[in-house]
Design brief:
It is built from 2 helices and 6 strands. It is mostly beta strands and 110 residues long. The relative contact order is 0.32.
Length: 110
């Protein structure tokens, strides 16, 4: 079909990401569901939706201005999500959902 994108470029999937490294008693995310093209892409989203991974700083920074968050670490780095079953595809995203949309997240507030 002329002009159509390959399947991997059209479809977004939903990935549930869990972490076991950062087990503080409060103010930490333990999991979230995000829309992404691949499981590798999914690891580079933050469960708050307001931070992005900065490779040069090796830290999560605020998406709006790129400054470091000096609060306690609330999510692990993408490199700590290498364990088995930490990134699991749970379905296909529906029309209108964009890459990086956080569907839900689990935050242990204290």
């Amino acid at each position: 079909m002329a002009g159509s994108k390959p399947l991997f470029q059209r479809d977004l999937f939903l990935y549930k990401i869990t972490q076991n490294e950062n087990r503080q008693h409060w103010d930490v995310y333990d999991s979230f569901v995000v829309a992404a093209r691949t499981s590798s892409d999914a690891k580079f989203f933050h469960p708050s939706g307001a931070k992005e991974w900065n490779e040069a700083k090796a830290a999560w920074v605020w998406s709006d201005d790129g400054t470091l968050s000096y609060s306690p670490v609330d999510w692990v780095s993408p490199w700590e999500l290498l364990g088995e079953h930490q990134v699991v595809c749970v379905g296909r995203a529906c029309h209108g959902v964009a890459a990086g949309d956080i569907i839900c997240s689990s935050f242990k507030a204290g």
